[in-house]
User: Fold this.
Amino acid sequence: MAKKNIRNFSIIAHIDHGKSTIADRLIEYTGTLSSREMEAQVLDNMDLERERGITIKAQTVRLAYKGKDGETYELNLIDTPGHVDFTYEVSRSLAACEGALLVVDAAQGVEAQTLANVYMALEHDLEIVPVINKIDLPSADPDRVKQEIEDAIGLDTENAVLASAKTGIGIEEILDAIVEYIPAPEGDEKKPLQALIFDSYFDAYKGVIAHVRVKEGRIEKGMRLKMMATGKVFEVTDVGYFAPTLVDTGRLEVGEVGFVAGSLKDVRDVRVGDTITFADSPAAEPLPGYRGVTPMVYCGLYPVDSADYDNLKDALEKMQINDAALVFEPETSVALGFGFRCGFLGLLHMDVIQERLEREYKLKLITTAPSVIYHVYKTDGTMVQVANPSELPPQTEIEHIEEPYVKATVIVPSDYVGAVMEISQEKRGTFKNMDYLDTNRVMITYHIPLNEIIFDYFDRLKSATRGYASLDYELADYETSKLVKVDVLLNGDPVDALSTIVHKDRAASRGRQLVSKLKEIIPQQMFEIPIQAAIGSKVIARENVRARRKDVLAKCYGGDITRKRKLLEKQKEGKKRMKAVGSVEVPQEAFMAILKID
Amino acid sequence: MEEAVRPWGVYIHIPFCKSKCFYCDFPSYAGREAFMGDYVKALVKEIETIGALRVEAAGTPATIYIGGGTPSLLPMELLETLLAALRRIFIEADFPQGERARERAEAGAVEYTLECNPGTVDLDKLKLCRMLGVNRLSFGVQSFDDRLLRRIGRIHTGLEAMRSLHLARIAGFDNISMDLMYGLPEERLEDFRHDLQAMAELSPEHISVYGLQLELGTAFYQMQEKGRLTLPSDEETEAMYDLMADFLPEKGYERYEISSFAWPGRQSRHNLSYWQDAEYLGLGAAAHSYLGAMRYENTHDILAYIEGIRAGESVRRLEEQVTEKAHKEEFCFLALRTREGIEKAAFLETFGVPIEEIYDEAIRNLVGKKLLEETETHLHLTPLGMKYGNMAFEAFLF
Assistant:
């Protein structure tokens, strides 16, 4: 395809503003899939994605469209992950495009996450086509939303398309706008190859499939190519485009978007953001913007049944094949036995991985509370990174500790500004900025420890703003904080997996809250269980779980047997997630208790 | 007639009571005495059809148990009709000459129990039962304390319970069981101690002791929901449990099951058969059967039962097909209720695989917690294990 007839674009939208539905309509309208082949929301094909209504893995599809000028255009839609955890992946997807559709709900208006992605798109010099979606809603107010887009983003909305993906209004107009306003790709097919990897996945037959955008040069089957960051060399076995299934065309031309495979076994050789070039006469420079994977959040994953350790390891390895952002290493806990410390891009990423391990691999897991990475400067002048609170060196060896801070952006109706500020202050945030997006909506920026974000910050915001708050954050820097480790002792024994790092001024109250929460969670057992919170050797809080007095069905005769077995089954089901810590049976929720206190 | 390969039992349900006790969730109904005649008629027909078929296939039963409800509430003539039918089908079937059959029954070859409530029996009724083959009585005493009895909805007094026992002795019964309850509203440890002492002085051959459980659909359950029930604390109830577990063995009663105590040789063979995976045929409304890995349940509705039997329709529905997995679970948790526990050889014979191969982890875990004891031939609960029986039972569920 001639470059001038190619258009590469993404869709930027807040969750629920209709990104997937618009993508579906575009696919349907261009006849890429017959309606019989159309499943609802074609692009979100992981079960979990459907359930949560979000996109986790980016998907790509090529659409053929005959424009008003009678020419056929190749439109490459690159669907981006729609969550703050995947900011880097979004940035690479955007770097593969010349333009983006900005989808905004005609009733809801602009949200924090939308803004963050729009700014990112603008940084990549993308041409942005605003689409006001859901104009069929009775509460739709396209003019207000247009004004908001102009005020908040400074975008001209003269060419904005009014659409309703649900009813099919405006779909053709969107396609025409893509052709008309989004520039054709540039690049020189004679230059040495530079192809940007913006996603990858593992295929059982073809090995790792890289999603690429050819920036310079061209790719053909049989070529020997090289990953510039990882150094991996491979021969192209399959190359082509997405429809959205793989269509092998034997080549990708400059400006095109498609896939490359070369019997690559390890997804870690195929890094998002890396540049593919010729193995023998490489490009002088890689494309800009590559960044290694940096997990933001860590937690321990342990099998409830220690016999499942190898299964968990296999499962993590299999997941890693498809998810280069997942890191893990073996870890041993006195309380929980053998498991893994796993690093994730964020809380959603963590949730998704845990849920997939349990669903797809049928594993019963104990998850410890998430932690950030602390930089611990020791008195001997060295610095250690601590991702597991129980590994914090003794207080006497610590000179100071630094923790990660983020720039958090919250958008709320102006009525809730006070509530947002109160919560943010309480979460050790420093106020940075406040902007009115329009007369009613405000964008507030805080400098706040990441640790506080992963502790129920968003939940609190949501409940204090009746669900109106939207949040986006990005890593800002590391700063010194007065932090201490609070340990928990069950029945007199410290339980390493319950240790937590908190700010010194809150240690006492956190300790008390944690202990009383644990008292609610830990069921009565055959003996009394003291629960204590301690800093070093100093106990700061204590509660007792009283002993269960007796526990036996008094009667069980002929007519009772089925019923009693079901009763026992129900009780047992409730205990399946318990882990024996010393002599105490501890339910899974206990390890997350720290997140549940207010 | 061919001998049954394994002993089996018959359960007969009599769903009538003078009044409903506040804790009771059994299928029994007060104020429906008018249906007793039709009910016994239907029951006899079921005995003569379903019962006779079973005997033809499996021989006569080892035990017969008439429970309720309150079987002793049946008037003399209905009781006689019922007992005669039972004797004809389940006892004499073996011996066309009835005389030898009676000798056998009297010698205790068949354990034949009738449940009674104090205050519903007189000497004539008891003598009739004895004459027609009943050789064991089970009295629902619950307490000797009239105040407590009233509080749980019982309609007899402690004195009547004692009198009933004496009448039973006069009628010639030498195998009598009495039930006690503890953990009753506003009951104190001392109250329960008095009950235990009174019981020991009466010296029945068998005693069952049940902690009160609040079951859905009972008057107590509703009172509890409304906060109008003052039960003893967990600590106090535990003390009662401990008292029972210590006191009765001291008086010569062997604890052969979690809630059952008996003089040597006087265990309830019928109840034991439930815990030892034996088959049983239940007749009457709401009676349960366990036959050929199936559990059945007769309709609970007295009128539907009477009509169904009269019309020659089946009144039984399949409650559950016991899978191999469920069978293993039940085999174990039922056997663990008994002092003897799980007989390893019986497990192997039933399932074709040694129990250690299937429950190795559960066994080690429970032994480690001192809930279970393992011998060469058996696995049985320790006294601690009996107290926390549910924890042990659960471990045998997959």
